[in-house]
Amino acid sequence: MNSQIYDLKGHTKDELVEILNRMGEPRFRATQLFKWIYQKGVTDFSRMTDISKLSQRKFDAAFIPESVSIVTAETSRDGTVKYLYRLADGKAVEGVLIPDPPRLTLCVSTQVGCRMGCAFCKTARMGWFRNLSAGEIVDQVCQVNTHIGPRRKVTNIVFMGMGEPLDNLENTLKAIEILGSAEGLQFSHRRLTVSTCGLVNKLTGLGNITKRFRLAVSLNAADDEIRDRLMPINRKYPIARLLEACRTISLRNRERITFEYVLLKDVNDRQKDAKALVKLFHGVKVKINLIPFNETEGIPFARPSDATILKFQKILLDAHMTAIIRDSRGDDISAACGQLATADATTLPPSSHPLPGSRGQCESVLDPPPL
User: Fold this and answer.
1) Is 337 part of the annotated catalytic residue set?
2) Which of 107, 315, 263 shows the shortest CA–CA distance to 193?
3) Are both 193 and 278 inside the same structural domain?
4) Which one of the listed residues 118, 142, 246, 337 is annotated catalytic?
5) Given 94, 136, 164, 260, which residue is catalytic?
6) 326 and 189 assigned to the same domain
7) Are residues 17 and 114 in the same domain?
8) 238-263 per-position pLDDT tens digit
9) CA neighbor of 9 nearest in space, from 68, 60, 89
10) What is the domain range of residue 52?
11) CATH of the domain at 225
């Protein structure tokens, strides 16, 4: 019998077929497992009634059914829930569940920490520890579905939690394939959104893959001087190169890239900043998400006044741009945009069944590895 241990939720259906084939199992067993795991929420092989006892015992020995566990679930006054997840090696990440009936949106993490160093983001202060595996990304969704079920399910997923999804591109794309599987959770491209700070080298190579999800780009400034200060990635990939890369993205008919713009008092919220944004996107159909800064301890920025935010939006609307002010959700429990960070990503005890290859070291945002 194959002695290798596999992360059950870390493989596409085709990969699972190959693993099962090496175990002497038929192809249809992969479909059975996918339906049990993702549609019925069952990971206990002994409860899978259409699978033989012999196969159940083989699977018990070969698979780790869960790579993520919920440690805490903290509920905001507005109904938003912030989850703290423990990973198999004891590291931790956070995620956020946002109720907006009929939608139930889960914000998932793709990395432990982040190495992008954005000045307004608390996650950046952690540094970068490691990438999450595809299974760890997928299992965040599964664990939340179990926690809130059985009558409710996550309807939308946004890759906007801790980490930069395109900095962990391979595992992010594999997770998207698993989440979108017809035998699995069946998330359509309309219900999956990937947010990036603008890794041009990754964007230009995506091609038609982008039709599997919606893309959101964190812009936050209309000129390089301000964006350099806010987002170190801009020093390598300035705005002109970012927009050029965005033009290469394959989109479905009538779809457009969303650009996210965090409004910071007296930094990028002035009327001249709004006019610069209009000029930047002149003649281009885009959607702008305006995100008033969520004030966070240790981050030296402030939220603009409501009047300033509305004036900024009006300039965009008057120029016939789509500009939406995004509500702040969960700020009272530090679950809002830019507020996710674990106090120490290594304080939780490791699982009794750590996954192979899950160990990593802390890396400072002051000295990130080459992108």
Assistant:
1) yes
2) 107
3) yes
4) 337
5) 94
6) yes
7) no
8) 999 999 999 888 787 778 899 999 99
9) 68
10) 6-64
11) 3.20.20.70
